[in-house]
Write a structure and sequence with these properties.
- The protein has 552 residues and is α/β, with parallel strands linked by helices.
- It has twelve helices and 27 strands.
- A hairpin with a 4-residue loop joins β18 and β19.
- α2 packs across α11, α7 crosses α8 and α11 crosses α12.
- The two termini are 19 Å apart.
C-alpha cells in the first residue's frame, strides 16, 4: 500500500516501541450500534486502520453493545457494510462487547473482593448531588463502606434480577475528592431490565463503557486504544481499571481531535430525530453526513479518506470547511467521471432546414482530459432540446448563448441561428425555430466568422426523462456547535437543502446507468445514479471549486 504519512500518534507509538520492541501494534474501532456511522467515524476508522497497516499490525472491529436499550441489528449490519465499503477490512477480527459480559462480571466481583468496588443505593439525582462540582470535592456515599460480604451479596442479587432499574449501582471505590470528576467513585454497573439483541435475557445488569472498554481492549490484545479527545479525561479511569484488574500487557489509550465539519451535525441522537420524524429520506438521505448517505450521494471511499487526511490528525480541535470535502471528490471525478449531457429545464428547438426524418450521429468525448476514455455517438435530429438558461429573449450584456437573430454552436455539432419564437397565451416560450449552418458539422464556418457561444443539446426523439436531485447544505449555520442556548438545530435547518428537478432530459446512454455510477453532467455538475429511485440522479457536487486547497 502507499506510504502512510506520519502523525503525532505514530510518534507516540515509535517512542513506546523503543522501550518495548516486542510490542505489536493492534488497534480497534469500537462503534456503538445505536445509529449509522458518519464522516466523523471515518476519521477514527482511518486512524486506527492505517496505524495498524503502517506497523504491520492488526485492526479489529468491536461493537460496543453494552447499552441494550438503544441498540439494534440494523445498526450492526450497517456498520460492517460501511467499514468494508471504506476498505478498512477488520483483519484482526470482528468482536462484540457483549461477548465479554461474563469476564466483566468476574472482574467486578474481583474488585469487590479487593475492596475496590461497592454497591450503592443512591439514585441518579442523589449521586449527582454527592459528586460535587469542578471546584468542590464530592461527598462519600453512605453505602461506601459496606463489607465485602454485603457488597458481593447485593451485586449477585442485582444480577439475579431482585432489584428494579435505577435502584442500585456498582461503583468503583477511588477518590471522591479527585480533581477529575470521572474518578469520583464512578458507576461501573447499572440495572437495566431490557433484552439484549445478542444476549437475550441472560443479563439484567450491564457494565458501563468506561469500565467495559479497557477490559475489552485488554482481552483482545489491543495495544493502542486510539480514541477522540473527549475521552482524554477518562484515561485515568481506563488505566485504573486495567491496573486494578491486573492485566499483564496493558493497552495504551491516546486521543485525537474529533472531526468537526461546517454546516454539518454529527449528533447521532439528532440524526435519528430527523430520520424518525421523516424530515429526511432515511439514514442514507444524501444531505446527511452518514457514510451510507455519502455513498448514495456519490462520494467515494478515497475522497472521504483524502478529506480526513487533508483536514489533519492532531489534538487541536478545529472546524473543517465542508468545501474541502467537496474539493476532494471534485478533483477525483474531474479525472475519472465520464461526461454526459443532461438538460435541467428543456426548451424545444426546431431546426427548420434540417430534414424531418434524418438522424445522424456526432462523436463527443467521454472525458476531454483523458483521450483514452474515447468517445460516444450522440444522435442528432430536426427537433432538439436545449436548456432554458441557454436562451434569452432580452439578453444581458455579453450573453453569448442563443438569442434572437444570434448564432451559437451546438456542442460537437452544427452552428444554429435563432429564428421564430413560439409562445403560449401567458408569454411562456413553447419552442424556438432555428436554422443550421449545415456546412459546419462540428467544424468552423467556411466564411471564417467567429461564434463565441457553445451550448449543450439533446435530440428530442432520443432523449430520456430523468429527475435531478440538487442538494445543498443541510444547515444554514456554519458552526452547529455554536448554536445559541435559546435555539435548537431545527432553527437552522436549510429549507432549500433539496431541489427536485422533475422533467429533466438526459442522453439515451444514461438509461443504462446502474446505481452508484457517476458522471459529469456537462455544465451542471457531478451526478450519481440513485440507489433507490430509477431514473433519478443525485448531484454530488457542482463544477465550481472555490476551496483554496493544496493542488497536488
Amino acid at each position: 500500500m502507499a506510504e502512510i504519512a506520519n502523525n503525532f500518534i505514530h510518534d507516540i507509538i515509535d517512542a513506546d516501541r523503543l522501550e518495548h520492541p516486542e510490542k505489536k501494534v493492534h488497534t480497534r474501532f469500537p462503534p456503538e450500534p445505536n445509529g449509522y456511522l458518519h464522516i466523523g467515524s471515518a476519521k477514527a476508522i482511518l486512524i486506527n486502520y492505517e496505524t495498524a497497516k503502517k506497523y504491520g499490525g492488526k485492526f479489529n472491529l468491536r461493537y460496543d453493545d453494552t447499552n441494550p436499550a438503544k441498540e439494534d441489528m440494523e445498526y450492526v449490519e450497517s456498520i460492517y457494510e460501511d467499514l468494508t465499503w471504506l476498505g478498512a477490512t477488520p483483519d484482526g477480527g470482528i468482536f462484540y462487547g457483549s461477548d465479554y459480559f461474563d469476564k466483566c462480571y468476574e472482574y467486578a466481583e474481583k474488585l469487590i473482593m479487593d475492596g475496590k468496588a461497592y454497591v450503592c443505593d443512591l439514585n441518579a439525582e442523589e449521586m449527582r448531588e454527592y459528586r460535587g462540582t469542578l471546584t468542590e470535592p464530592g461527598k462519600e456515599s453512605p453505602y461506601r463502606n459496606r463489607s465485602v460480604e454485603e457488597n458481593l451479596d447485593l451485586f449477585r442479587r442485582m444480577r439475579a434480577g431482585e432489584f428494579p432499574d435505577g435502584s442500585r449501582t456498582l461503583r468503583a471505590k477511588i477518590d471522591m475528592a479527585s480533581p477529575n470528576m470521572n474518578m469520583r467513585d464512578p458507576a461501573i454497573y447499572r440495572i437495566v431490565h431490557t433484552s439484549h439483541h445478542r444476549q437475550g435475557d441472560k443479563w439484567c445488569i450491564y457494565p458501563l463503557y468506561d469500565y467495559a472498554h479497557p477490559i475489552q481492549d485488554a482481552l483482545e490484545g489491543i495495544t493502542y486504544s486510539l480514541c477522540s479527545l473527549e475521552f482524554e479525561n477518562h484515561r485515568p479511569l481506563y488505566e485504573w481499571v486495567i491496573d486494578n484488574i491486573g492485566f499483564e500487557m496493558p493497552p495504551m489509550q491516546r486521543e485525537f481531535a474529533r472531526l468537526n465539519v461546517t454546516n454539518t451535525v454529527m449528533s447521532k441522537r439528532y440524526l435519528r430525530y430527523l430520520v424518525e420524524n421523516d424530515m429526511v429520506d432515511g439514514w442514507d438521505d444524501p444531505r446527511l453526513p452518514t457514510i451510507c448517505a455519502l455513498r448514495r450521494r456519490g462520494y467515494t471511499p478515497s475522497s472521504i479518506f483524502n478529506f480526513v487526511r487533508n483536514a489533519g490528525i492532531s489534538k487541536a480541535n478545529s472546524l473543517v470547511d465542508i468545501e474541502m470535502l467537496e474539493h476532494c471528490i471534485r478533483e477525483e471525478l474531474n479525472a475519472s467521471a465520464p461526461r454526459r449531457i443532461a438538460i435541467e429545464k428543456p426548451i424545444k428547438v426546431v431546426i427548420d432546414n434540417y430534414p424531418e426524418n434524418k438522424v445522424e450521429y456526432f462523436n463527443l468525448p467521454n472525458n476531454p482530459q483523458n483521450p483514452e476514455a474515447g468517445t460516444r455517438a450522440l444522435p442528432f435530429s430536426r427537433e432538439i432540446f436545449i436548456d432554458a438558461s441557454d436562451f434569452s429573449e432580452v439578453p444581458p450584456p455579453k450573453f453569448f448563448r442563443l438569442k434572437p437573430e444570434g448564432e451559437v454552436r451546438l456542442m460537437g455539432a452544427y452552428i444554429i441561428k435563432c429564428g421564430e419564437i413560439v409562445k403560449d397565451e401567458d408569454g411562456n416560450v413553447l419552442e424556438i425555430h432555428a436554422t443550421a449552418d449545415l456546412q459546419t458539422g462540428n467544424g468552423n464556418p467556411v466564411d471564417g466568422r467567429k461564434i463565441k457561444g457553445t451550448i449543450h443539446w439533446l435530440s428530442a426523439a432520443h432523449a430520456a426523462d430523468a429527475t435531478l436531485m440538487l442538494y445543498d447544505r443541510l444547515f444554514t449555520i456554519e458552526n452547529v456547535n455554536a448554536i445559541p442556548e435559546d435555539k435548537t438545530y431545527n432553527d437552522y435547518l436549510n429549507p432549500n437543502s433539496l431541489t427536485v428537478v422533475a422533467g429533466a432530459k438526459i442522453e439515451p446512454s444514461l438509461t443504462e446507468a446502474k446505481a452508484g455510477d457517476k458522471f459529469q453532467f456537462v455544465r451542471n455538475g457531478y451526478f450519481c445514479c440513485d440507489s433507490k429511485n430509477a431514473g433519478t440522479f443525485n448531484r454530488i457536487v457542482g463544477l465550481k471549486d472555490s476551496f483554496p486547497a493544496k493542488k497536488n
